[in-house]
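Q: Protein A?
A:
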Amino acid sequence: MKGDEARARRAEVIEHFTQYVELLREASAATLARYSFKLEFPDGRWNLAEKELTVTPHVGECVEFADGERWRIRGSQFVHPRPSGKPPREFFVCAPAA
């Protein structure tokens, strides 16, 4: 009977860990926010990208995108949508990280 109790206890502990991991996943998903980035290339071209982050990026920080390229944030730029009535959208302006 002691072995059955130990198995039942292990199964209960595993279930509690599974629930805990699910709570952590929900919490991390809830704290992600999508940010917009303007990537400026040395030759004058630029591109837009988005990335989900847990904290607001700041000037001087580096951001890495899916292609593995790292970009340093130089500042931010607000774009007013048209037609007006919507709030301005912030883009973090980036240059390639050295």
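Q: Protein B?
A:
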Amino acid sequence: MKILGLFLVMVLASGAQAFERKVVSCQRAKIGLTTLIGPIGETTRYFHDGRVAVYTVDLLDPMCCSAGIAIVLPEVNGPTGGEMKCVAILGSFGVDVKNARSSFNPVSGLLIEVDTREYQGTKDSIPGKPIKVRVNIENSKVSLE
């Protein structure tokens, strides 16, 4: 029992590092309009001539690491050609979409970097590992870097 308790303390104390970031569909992550953080103008950024939208989302889990981003982009393989694709990346205590940085490479696509915060078991947090995500608009692919 002591070992289990020690393990839980270690996991909680380690903050977001204990949670693996991965790209998942918004549906799978249960990301919807109610998980968007407002005011939308301050927590949303548009990239690639407005074709890629990045939103701050939070599943409001009181423990930690429920914040992240949702990325909406055109789905090039959709049946009618007008569909949109939504993916999410969670695993942070907080994200700063407003100050996200981007760069574009014609071969690999759009790179977006979003600063994060890590949970420290109190009201305070510390800077975390940024979310670095590659968006390829030509094939609707999103991947972590």
